[in-house]
Amino acid sequence: MKILASAVFLGFVISVSANAQADGEATYNQACMACHMTGAAGAPIRGNTEHWEPRVEKGMDTLYDHAINGFQAMPPKGGQLGLSDEEVKAAVDYLLEPVL
């Protein structure tokens, strides 16, 4: 588990620097907060390690893919189709900051 967490964290650090130009917090506030602050429709809550741990174990590429293309009840790009992939990735990075 520790090796996996380190590998995932390394991937997170790399992705954060790659998405540094996009404002993850602003995108989160615009497109993600309504569900990821309340847990609506089963959305994992920002800062809740228990919610995020099994998702993080699937890897950042999977998390980005789900955020960009949609997954279960979550629409693509949180329903904000005008967002760039980089903006969505930055929002994912912001969502994960408190748990990694």
Output the radius of gyration: 12 Å
| Count of discrete alpha- or pi-helical segments spanning 4 or more residues | 5
Instruction: Classify the fold: give the CATH topology.
Output: Cytochrome Bc1 Complex, Chain D, domain 2
CATH architecture, please?
A: Orthogonal Bundle
Query: What is the number of E strands?
Result: 0
Quick check: average pLDDT?
Answer: 86
Calculate the terminal CA-CA distance, rounded to whole Å. Answer: 13 Å
Going by CATH, the homologous superfamily would be Cytochrome c-like domain
Please identify the top-level CATH class. Answer: Mainly Alpha
What is the molecular shape? globular
How many separate domains make up the residues?
Answer: 1
Q: How would you sum up this structure, described in words?
A:
The chain is an all-alpha fold and 100 residues long. It has a single domain, classed as Orthogonal Bundle (Cytochrome Bc1 Complex, Chain D, domain 2). It has helices spanning 2-18, 24-36, 49-56, 60-69, 85-96. The longest helix has 17 residues, at 2-18. The protein is globular and about 30 Å long. The model has no long low-confidence stretch (mean pLDDT 86).
